[in-house]
Amino acid sequence: MPSPQPDAIIRIKNLRLRTFIGIKEEEIANRQDIVINVAIHYPADKARASEDINDALNYRTITKQIIQLVENSRFSLLEKLTQDVLNIACDHPWVSYAEVEIDKLHALRYADSVSMTLSWRR
């Protein structure tokens, strides 16, 4: 019997979206650019030996859920936005670990962005 393989890792890289994020009047009134990076670990044992989409974690479905959440919501805190995206990333029962990093672009005058990273482990 072959030894178990390490988890597969799905990475959604640099998902660029716009949302309402922040507490200042200007932030409440105007959408801002954010960049989302997600890593999802899961045992892909079935998918390694199959061509059936039902044997794999569908990253397109996950991405669509993230886009829907971000574009149709308002957030005061980067922590809350990051946690809500993480909740989507770790929702599937196969997921063993998920990590989300969200960059709020131009949040500080002399920095490219400010980011928040949260993770979850089953």
Automatic annotation (TrEMBL):
Protein name, as recorded: Dihydroneopterin triphosphate 2'-epimerase
Domain of life: Bacteria
EC number: 5.1.99.7
Assembly description: Homooctamer.
SUPFAM superfamilies in the cross-refs: Tetrahydrobiopterin biosynthesis enzymes-like (SSF55620)
Presence of keyword Isomerase: yes
Entry keyword set: Isomerase
The keyword Nucleotide-binding is annotated on this UniProt entry: no
GO molecular function: dihydroneopterin aldolase activity; dihydroneopterin triphosphate 2'-epimerase activity
Domain Dihydroneopterin aldolase/epimerase intervals: 10-120
Catalytic activities: 7,8-dihydroneopterin 3'-triphosphate = 7,8-dihydromonapterin 3'-triphosphate
Organism: Buttiauxella warmboldiae
Cross-referenced InterPro entries: Dihydroneopterin_aldolase, FolB_dom, GTP-CH-I_C/QueF
Leading EC class: isomerase
Family stated for the protein in its record: Belongs to the DHNA family.
GO CC annotation: cytosol
GO terms classed as biological process: folic acid-containing compound metabolic process; pteridine-containing compound biosynthetic process
